[in-house]
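SEQUENCE WITH STRUCTURE:
===
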Amino acid sequence: MNQTRKKQSTVVRLFSQLKGQRIRLTVVAVSIIIYIGLSIYNPMYSALVIDHLWQSIQAAWSEGVPFAVTWTNMGRELTQLTVQYFFTWIFYYLQSYLMANVAENLNLELRNQIAGKLNRLPLRFFDQNKAGEILSRVTSDLDKIADVLQTGLLKLLVAIGTIAGSLIVMFYYSVPLTCIFLIFMAVSVVITQIVAKKNLRCAAERQETIGELTGIVEEYYNGRNVIKAYNHEEQSLNGVTAAAEKNRAANQKADFLTNCVNPLIRLLTRLANVVIAIIAGKAMLDGTMTVGVVQAFFQYVNQTAEPLTEASFMVNSLQSALASARRTFELLDEEEEIPDPIYPAVLEQAKGSIAFEHVSFGYDPGRLLMRDISFEAKPGQKIAVVGSTGAGKTTLVNLLMRFYEVNGGRITIDGVDTAEMTRGGLRRNFGMVLQDTWLFGGTVAENIAYSKPDATREEIIAAAKAAKVDYFIRTMPHGYNTVLDNEAANLSAGQRQLLTIARVFLCDPPVIILDEATSSVDTRTEAEIGKAMKKLMKGRTSFVIAHRLSTIRDADMILFMENGNIIEQGNHRELLAKQGAYASLYYSQFE
């Protein structure tokens, strides 16, 4: 029962997405009604035409004159039948074209909703889900929904209307023959229902395995250099092979259940035709049925059996689409970031006074990582954050940028609680350089201008010079117009880092965050960048996460973190004098 309610809920929600396409759907509905009406009327009229044709042929034969078709003798009826078939095709084409349009618009609408949703999801969601699994929901799941809607749903609606109308006429022509056909149809429906239930589970499993396979492939592709460096090609191949085999098995089972029912129903239809043909032949010999009626009845049999076959196939396909729709709505229902305040505090150009006041935080609210964190950074100060890997250094910075929400206490900038500001308004006061560089497909100039899209070429060049990156840019084939791929594979790690540093120079923020910003450059380049950084940081508050303590000896305050908490704070001389954890780490680097 719970599974049925989930299915009904998914169907209702899916069709609620179509409320903006009512005009198209109305035209589709009218086209379907007219098409079904013509499909039902055409065999009835053909029965009259064939009976009339048969009578005319018999009359000509008995009179010994050649039979000829003229406008008054069968010409008018045959022309009308041809026109009816033509309009049947026209309305079939119209409904197919518009339904494809509706399905693709729905696909676009859902994709736009997901794109907006991904921008509102907290980092916690991306920490807990693989990129490949998210990608499969945006691509394969939505494509599955669109494909089934523009073919499966349309055929199912036409099938239902055609079957209902044809059965009414069949009962009118012959109750016994129709009952025989219904017996075979009932068996087909039972088989379809049994297969459909199993197919829903298999379709959901197939989409899950697609997401898993996509995630593994994406993970191994990004880590291809590490895989080769440690000779793990065979292990990674085995991992992909195992995921692909799991997906193959799920696909095989789902495809078999989707396709196996068609041949069986066609067999039942053929058996029904044989039985009906024998009884109808006797009825013609007895004179209770005419040739035209018998051929019309067989048209209705085929017209009912074929949609029944397609309906069974499409019901199974719709199960797969429902599984994809459910996964899509699960993504759209994920818990979002706390909304920005309706009347937010505005801080156009911060002075750079930062304060953590009794802040507590945990990725899982029940298991806090940080407890009662308090410190204050005055405008223009350089704050260094040090500690072992996993001590919470990057988490501290992420809280400052509101990538995560604190569980207790508050963080202020110039005395304004960051929770009272919009995220965009807060982050405009920060410039950030991460240890892992990120460059997108575009020119060098566009990548630098990512922090300030309206920057002039002169401003971009000035920022590049400040970051000591102008020289090597000018040695590239097209200088600042050189196009980089999305991984900038044609640049060294140090060069990529220099470009991201140039972004910070360009946006000229009041607060700077450097998370191991010079970890990928050589000593000489690091020294050059250090000089430029000192000039940039003058008069600005800066947070520097560093492992090499020699680079932060001039910091105004050093925060030494361990297990998510600040266990020591002070400047370099004060912490050395304490002979505590910082002093121990510092001396260990210079032994």
